[in-house]
Design a protein that fits this description.
CATH class of the largest domain: Alpha Beta
Number of strands: 23
Oligomer: single chain
CATH superfamily of the largest domain: ATPase, nucleotide binding domain
Shape: globular
Number of domains: 2
Largest sheet: 7 strands, mixed
Distance between the termini: 64 Å
Strand order of the largest sheet: 17-18-16-15-21-22-23
Number of helices: 16
CATH architecture of the largest domain: 2-Layer Sandwich
Structural class: alpha+beta
Strand content: 15-25%
Radius of gyration: 22 Å
């Protein structure tokens, strides 16, 4: 019998990739493609869901070809995805009814602001989330009330809503010709429609947002055989789809954060720090979110505290695409390293408001401390510092909520390849930063979920031996230096507030 592998479909905010892992957890093939960021007006961010599905098929075919693997050699595949981004499609035509509304989008701010304080408190208690346009429920409501094709499909009972995992699962399993409409508990916990205690859609919330239950996917665990791929699809055979996790929860699994107290921070388009709180729902008093960490099969659910930062890696894209001060994202490290410090420049990239721990939709980006001596190198360095300062804010909140002082932090995601940024992070936090050999732990976590489900890996103990440290950064700053820089950062944050009406 030929060797078998696990596939992982990782659909992110800026790109889609398919990765193939062997039994040792090593990457044997991968392919990745970007998709368009559609911004019709200020505060609006959209994706073409049909384009994402087309890219998905391309990256699957490309990775299989690169690895020299055929679909029948895959024991299973897992799916991980950008969370909260919302797709509406028609079950009969299989076509999206509009562009997907991305998690960064702020168009529903005024709608949510009009909720009464009592209603806001009820939503926060039931869902563990902040009242913010970040989450899916208000996006679905907007689509129903502003896109005639969506409301028509709702009336005709052919409308389907879902996060990106549901859209991909539906298409992979046959689409209009028999596709299944499911999601997992981690993605459902990001919609503002799921009750954290019941792990089901909450009827009171569905009524509040005017969303018919029939349009939503069934909620399942993060690790089970949901269905198989359509043999006529990109795999050319029926492969079990056996794991689904939102991207940040997938990174927790990829970093082996299975125990209460384990934590990691992922550096991607945004930054996301999670702390496993075990079977306990810990309600934040410091601006963090309470969310589902994972639930495998019939095992009890595990919860997490999460700190979400909207703009980190996408600030680097902004320097590249909008300002043109770099032509490739990888150039920022050398540019930032060409100056010893920011010369007093602070950059707060609150392009779509501030997420944790502030939750201020009225905030907008600022660059402060400019003098005639400021150069693009200072701005580049300030952009890296912004990533680190925003991360410090959420790690401070996490320590306050959990009562646990952090002594080290496991990191992953693309920006962790930037050694200068990781050294800055160690200096700004004053703790050690540890990066694993496989930095793309989001895809690895989805692979682990699927592989454990089908017995490709026997148990968690078997995969725990696969985690290996690549590098560790130690802080070199003094406490006085850290606190001075952080005090200036907080002054810069104040300048962002009360800007957008």
């Amino acid at each position: 019998m030929s060797e078998s592998f696990i596939g992982s479909l990782d659909q992110g905010t800026s790109s889609t990739r398919f990765m193939i892992f062997d039994h040792a957890g090593k990457i044997v093939g991968q392919h990745q493609l970007e998709h368009r960021q559609i911004m019709p007006q200020a505060g609006w961010v959209e994706h073409d869901a049909a384009e994402i599905w087309a890219r998905t098929q391309e990256v699957i075919t490309g990775a299989l070809k690169q690895a020299g693997v055929i679909g029948s050699q895959l024991a299973a595949i897992g799916i991980t995805n950008q969370r909260e981004t919302t797709v509406a499609w028609d079950s009969q035509t299989g076509k999206p009814l509009s562009n997907a509304i991305v998690w960064q989008d702020t168009r529903t701010t005024a709608y949510l602001d009009a909720f009464s304080p009592q209603l806001k408190d009820e939503i926060v208690h039931k869902t563990g989330l902040a009242i913010a346009p970040y989450f899916s429920a208000s996006k679905i409501n907007w689509l129903m009330n502003n896109v005639p094709a969506v409301q028509q499909a709702v009336d005709q009972q052919t409308a389907r809503f879902g996060t990106i995992d549901s859209w991909l699962l539906w298409n992979l399993s046959g689409g209009a010709h028999g596709g299944v409409h499911l999601t997992d508990v981690t993605n459902a916990s990001r919609t503002m429609l799921m009750n954290l205690e019941t792990l089901d859609w909450d009827q009171t919330l569905l009524d509040q947002f005017e969303i018919p239950r029939s349009t939503l996917p069934q909620i399942r665990s993060s690790g089970e055989i949901y269905t198989t791929t359509d043999p006529n699809g990109p795999f050319g055979t029926a492969v079990p789809i056996a794991g689904i996790l939102g991207d940040q929860q997938a990174a927790m699994v990829g970093q082996l954060c299975f125990a209460r107290g384990d934590s990691k921070t992922t550096y991607g388009t945004g930054n996301f720090a999670l702390l496993n709180t075990g079977n306990e729902i810990v309600r934040s008093k410091n601006g963090l979110l309470t969310t589902v960490c994972f639930k495998f099969g019939s095992e009890p659910v595990q919860y997490a505290l999460e700190g979400s930062v909207a703009v980190t890696g996408s600030a680097i894209q902004w320097l590249r695409d909008q300002l043109g001060i770099i032509s490739n994202a990888s150039e920022i490290e050398n540019l930032a390293a060409s100056v010893p410090d920011t010369d007093g420049v602070y950059f707060v990239p609150a392009f779509s408001g501030l997420f944790a721990p502030h939750w201020r939709s009225d905030a907008r980006g600022v660059i402060v401390g400019l003098t005639r001596a400021a150069t693009k190198a200072h701005l580049a360095r300030a952009a890296l510092e912004a990533i680190c300062y925003q991360t410090r804010e959420i790690m401070d909140a996490m320590s306050a909520d959990s009562g646990v002082a952090l002594t080290q932090m496991r990191v992953d995601g693309g920006i962790t390849n930037n050694a200068l940024c990781m050294q800055m992070q160690a200096d700004i936090l004053g703790i050690e930063i540890s990066r694993p050999v496989i930095v793309e732990t989001t895809a690895l976590g989805a692979a682990y979920a699927a592989g454990l489900t089908v017995g490709f890996w026997k148990d968690r103990a078997e995969i725990s031996g696969q985690w290996k440290e690549f590098h560790r950064w130690h802080p070199t700053s003094t406490p006085a230096e850290r606190e001075k820089g952080f005090a200036n950062w907080r002054k810069a944050i104040e300048r962002t507030l009360n800007w957008a009406q």
